């Protein structure tokens, strides 16, 4: 079970008293830490990408508990509150900034789901330390850095100049609004045809499959990059064998942005943000953009658009124009 999560060797606290009968039904053996066993049982019920994200959250939580000398299965609400304070006030390794409200809310949601599973489904635990923790209020506006049409063109040019792989990935993310996990998780066999369209079959958040239509520019960059390959991941690691890792793709995007003279803070999700913003600006229907992004709620799609073009569309200008004269009176 140690392969599921980071080891808890730093813990000095005694293992928790859990219900022995239900614990025996979990994966693993008596030699495995009950936290690992419970985590394995919970994670197996989630799609691959979701399970990977939740595993990272549980590993971070376990590491925080280790610093406090508290086993995760005996943690109390105040330990969770301390973790939230740490996340919101301390620069995080991946970004160099404190975690956003949306990030903290997502981590707490994962933690809450894990403990609820332990209490209600596995019946190993008697209570959840997250049950009464206050969730941060998430803004209606996306915090992602959105790029303008001109900035997107500069980034695309930098990607084409760099390599066929960079050109294919940046073009796919820019013109299709995919999550980076959807793009990197696709295989060559997923690139095909459907009713006269070139499409890419991707696995959405939650494990749902979707066929994404590809514009000619995307098809050209993918075909150039793939060459005569007929199997394996579309995006390969530098050794040409394994799948291109998220961290490497994120780092490469940062280098491309610097080469294109773009503002700092651009991430793969920024391209998804920009896709929604620019598509709506160009007149695409909200429902069509919602479907393209795989959102179940239109309010999620609207979050991407509010930060820029809501100012341009403000009725304040219409009213002021109608009620004032040309000389401002």
TrEMBL record:
<dbReference type="GO" id="GO:0006310">
    <property type="term" value="P:DNA recombination"/>
</dbReference>
<dbReference type="InterPro" id="IPR013762">
    <property type="entry name" value="Integrase-like_cat_sf"/>
</dbReference>
<dbReference type="GO" id="GO:0003677">
    <property type="term" value="F:DNA binding"/>
</dbReference>
<dbReference type="InterPro" id="IPR004107">
    <property type="entry name" value="Integrase_SAM-like_N"/>
</dbReference>
<feature type="domain" description="Tyr recombinase">
    <location>
        <begin position="142"/>
        <end position="323"/>
    </location>
</feature>
<protein>
    <submittedName>
        <fullName>Tyrosine-type recombinase/integrase</fullName>
    </submittedName>
</protein>
<dbReference type="Pfam" id="PF02899">
    <property type="entry name" value="Phage_int_SAM_1"/>
</dbReference>
<dbReference type="InterPro" id="IPR010998">
    <property type="entry name" value="Integrase_recombinase_N"/>
</dbReference>
<dbReference type="Pfam" id="PF00589">
    <property type="entry name" value="Phage_integrase"/>
</dbReference>
<keyword id="KW-0229">DNA integration</keyword>
<dbReference type="InterPro" id="IPR050090">
    <property type="entry name" value="Tyrosine_recombinase_XerCD"/>
</dbReference>
<dbReference type="GO" id="GO:0015074">
    <property type="term" value="P:DNA integration"/>
</dbReference>
<feature type="domain" description="Core-binding (CB)">
    <location>
        <begin position="33"/>
        <end position="119"/>
    </location>
</feature>
<dbReference type="InterPro" id="IPR002104">
    <property type="entry name" value="Integrase_catalytic"/>
</dbReference>
<keyword id="KW-0233">DNA recombination</keyword>
<dbReference type="InterPro" id="IPR044068">
    <property type="entry name" value="CB"/>
</dbReference>
<keyword id="KW-0238">DNA-binding</keyword>
<dbReference type="InterPro" id="IPR011010">
    <property type="entry name" value="DNA_brk_join_enz"/>
</dbReference>
């Amino acid at each position: 079970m140690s392969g599921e999560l980071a080891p808890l060797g730093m813990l000095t606290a005694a293992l928790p008293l859990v219900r022995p009968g239900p614990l025996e039904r979990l994966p693993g053996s008596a030699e495995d830490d009950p936290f690992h066993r419970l985590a394995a049982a919970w994670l197996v019920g989630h799609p691959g990408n979701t399970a990977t994200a939740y595993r990272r959250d549980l590993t971070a939580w376990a590491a925080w508990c280790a610093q406090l000398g508290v086993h995760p299965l005996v943690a109390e609400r105040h330990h969770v509150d301390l973790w939230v304070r740490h996340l919101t006030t301390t620069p995080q390794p991946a970004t160099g900034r404190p975690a956003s409200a949306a990030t903290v809310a997502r981590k707490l949601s994962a933690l809450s789901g894990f403990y609820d599973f332990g209490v209600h489904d596995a019946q190993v635990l008697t209570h959840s330390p997250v049950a009464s923790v206050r969730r941060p209020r998430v803004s209606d506006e996306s915090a992602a850095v959105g790029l303008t049409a001109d900035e997107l063109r500069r980034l695309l040019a930098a990607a084409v100049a760099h390599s066929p792989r960079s050109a294919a990935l940046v073009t796919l993310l820019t013109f299709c609004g995919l999550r980076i996990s959807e793009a990197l998780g696709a295989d060559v066999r997923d690139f095909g045809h459907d009713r006269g369209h070139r499409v890419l079959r991707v696995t959405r958040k939650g494990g749902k499959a979707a066929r994404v239509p590809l514009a000619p520019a995307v098809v050209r960059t993918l075909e150039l990059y793939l060459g005569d390959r007929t199997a394996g991941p579309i995006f390969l690691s530098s050794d040409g064998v394994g799948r291109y890792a998220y961290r490497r793709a994120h780092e490469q995007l940062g280098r491309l942005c610097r080469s294109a003279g773009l503002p700092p803070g651009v991430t793969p999700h920024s391209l998804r943000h920009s896709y929604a913003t620019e598509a709506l600006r160009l007149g695409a229907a909200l429902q069509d953009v919602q479907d393209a992004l795989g959102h179940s709620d239109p309010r999620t799609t609207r979050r991407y658009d509010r930060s820029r073009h809501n100012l341009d569309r403000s009725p304040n200008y219409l009213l002021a124009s109608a009620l004032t004269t040309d000389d401002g009176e």
